[in-house]
Design brief:
By secondary structure, the protein is of the alpha/beta class. The chain has helices spanning 9-13, 16-27, 67-75, 95-98, 116-121, 126-132, 136-146, 158-167, 188-195, 197-211, 225-240, 271-278, 307-311, 313-319, 321-325, 358-365, 399-404, 423-437, 443-460, 465-482, 486-490, 492-501; strands at residues 2-6, 35-39, 51-55, 58-62, 87-90, 174-179, 215-221, 256-262, 302-306, 328-329, 332-333, 335-342, 348-353, 375-380, 387-389, 413-418. It has four domains: 2-94, Glutaredoxin, CATH 3.40.30.10; 116-324, Rossmann fold; 327-418, Ubiquitin-like (UB roll), CATH 3.10.20.600; 423-507, NADH-ubiquinone oxidoreductase 51kDa subunit, iron-sulphur binding domain (de novo design (two linked rop proteins)), CATH 1.20.1440. Strands 2-1-3-4-5 form a five-stranded mixed sheet, covered by helices on one side. The protein has a five-stranded mixed sheet with strand order 13-12-16-14-15. The relative contact order is 0.10.
Length: 513
């Protein structure tokens, strides 16, 4: 009898390990043989620890399960899908899950992330096998035709970046995975690395075949110890199976992957700062040009994509570019893993084709605010994303649609605030965050953010309001157009959106801190 319990960090934080041990402890005295499979999370985080049992009717879900529930579950014959207040029915029929279109996360929560056999049994490495029969140029064409854009924030077409590296002559090329997931409200990278790490390894290997790169590095934030262990285990089983190494699957083509830990600097999420850190230097932004695709890691042509971008590649090679392109709208093709966090009743991960609206996500999936109060604003795209008011909740998830209203999708993280939020305090936090995280290389970011905090304090205190507001807007314009990278360049997004959509919050008297 198979029982599935997540080993995802979110599930572990609420006792998943203890639940797995308790199930095993209760099964023994009852003479029941059980096989407990540790999987990734299904993404329904409010139901964790989620326990699934394999029955003749498919997987039946129970959750959230506490230690006190385990004995009652056995008494209710939960291994056969027995009735119990925690019985959620077949997992695939839970509305939150059944309404999704899962491509990148198709295996997450289903397979054992450390098992190569499980990965292969659920369609793993079919994309790589197809790629091995193709020329590098044809692989790049497939990724280009699929319309895959970078899922890390800038939404730059992946195929163009790959083509540049392919066409640049060098004796050594690299694939670098940006796994420095530092945006507030984001965890999709972590979920893939903990729940289906082999799909990332496969995607990086395909990128290597496509561009002529023979070495890959995963730059992982040090705050992800569970992901670190899962990646190392996945790389080991991939090497043992011949999917990494000097002769990938007997093709005569080499590719291997290593993991490197970052020290937690937000600026190292910027690709050139990441490269500096990866080379053992201080994480500071590089001047561009040259682009990393031409002169990147150690001065060699380098593909830099984030986790979700690379993890989306195997399904494109497996199912074909047209299959992937058929999801989405406009220039936003495929699916996007959306992360619902903050003041939300049903927080978790939702993978959907581009085209749904914020309102659908917040209410149809998220169930409204956890507090029960009206949702006043959401911040999309991390700490540098704009605050979007209720009047913009019908904006569709599409890169161009968000840009049209002065916002950005970024990494797909959505942080929810109810009507008790102080938006002036949020604007101040954005400036303070930039000041703390700045690499210090350019004046608009390093000094502008510090001055920005001071200006907002004077504005909220009611000191010469018109002058201070004009000064804040002028400062934001300088940061937008004068900063060396997106940290300083995007900080005005949350500041100005708060000021434009919630002006009354800036005239409530002294800021309470």
């Amino acid at each position: 009898m198979k029982i599935y319990v997540s080993c995802d960090a979110a599930a572990l934080s609420v006792g998943a390990d203890e639940i797995a041990h308790a199930i095993a402890a209760h099964a023994g005295p009852r003479g029941i043989e059980v096989e407990i499979v540790r999987t990734g999370s299904r993404g329904m985080l409010w139901l964790e620890p989620l326990v699934e049992v394999q029955t003749a009717q498919g997987r039946i879900a129970y959750g959230p399960v506490s230690l006190e529930d385990v004995r009652d579950l056995f008494d209710a014959d939960f291994l056969q899908g027995g009735a119990h207040p925690l019985n959620l029915g077949p997992t695939e029929q839970i509305p939150y899950f059944s309404k999704q279109q899962r491509l990148t996360f198709a295996r997450c929560g289903i397979t054992d992330p450390s098992s190569l056999d499980d990965y292969l049994a659920h369609g793993g490495y079919r994309g790589l096998e197809r790629a091995l029969s193709m020329s590098p140029a044809d692989i790049v064409t497939a990724v280009t035709d699929a319309g895959l854009r970078g899922r890390g924030g800038a939404a730059f077409p992946a195929g163009i970046k790959w083509k540049t590296v392919l066409s640049t002559t060098a004796e050594q090329k690299y694939i670098v995975c940006n796994a420095d997931e530092g945006d507030s409200g984001t965890f999709s990278d972590r979920m893939i690395m903990e729940g289906d790490p082999l799909v990332l390894v496969e995607g990086m290997t395909i990128a290597g075949l496509a561009t002529g790169a023979t070495k890959g590095y995963i730059y992982l934030r040090s705050e992800y110890p569970h992901a670190h262990r899962a990646l190392l285990a996945a790389i080991d089983v991939a090497r043992a199976g011949g999917y990494l190494g000097p002769d990938v699957r007997g093709s005569g083509r080499a590719f291997d992957v290593d993991v490197r830990l970052g020290a937690g600097a937000y600026i190292c999420g910027e690709e050139t700062s990441l490269l500096e850190s990866l080379e053992g230097k201080r994480g500071q932004v590089r001047f561009k040009p040259p682009l990393p695709a031409i002169s990147g890691l150690f001065g060699k042509p380098t593909v830099i994509n984030n986790v979700i971008t690379l993890a989306s590649v195997p399904v494109i090679l497996d199912q074909g570019a047209a299959h992937y392109r058929d999801f989405g709208m406009g220039r936003s093709r495929g699916t996007l893993p959306i992360q619902l966090t903050g003041n939300i009743r049903h927080g978790g991960l939702v993978e959907l084709a581009f085209g749904t609206t914020l309102r659908e996500l917040l209410y149809d999936f998220g169930g409204g605010s956890l507090s029960g109060r009206p949702i006043r604003a959401v911040q999309v795209g991390g700490p540098l994303g704009a605050y979007m008011p209720e009047s913009q909740f019908d904006t569709v998830l599409d890169y161009e649609a968000f840009a049209a209203v002065g916002a950005m999708l970024g990494h797909g993280g959505i942080v929810v605030f109810d009507d008790s939020v102080d938006m002036a305090a949020q604007a101040r936090y954005a400036m303070e965050f930039c000041a703390v995280e700045s690499c210090g290389k350019c004046t608009p970011c390093r000094i502008g953010s510090t001055r920005g905090v001071e200006v907002i304090d004077r504005l909220v205190a009611g000191r010469d309001v018109q002058t201070q507001e004009a000064l804040l807007r002028d400062l934001c314009d300088t940061m937008t157009h004068g900063s060396l990278c997106a940290l300083g360049g995007l900080t005005p997004y949350p500041v100005l959106s708060a000021l434009n959509h919630f002006p009354d919050d800036f005239s409530r008297g002294a800021l309470v801190r």
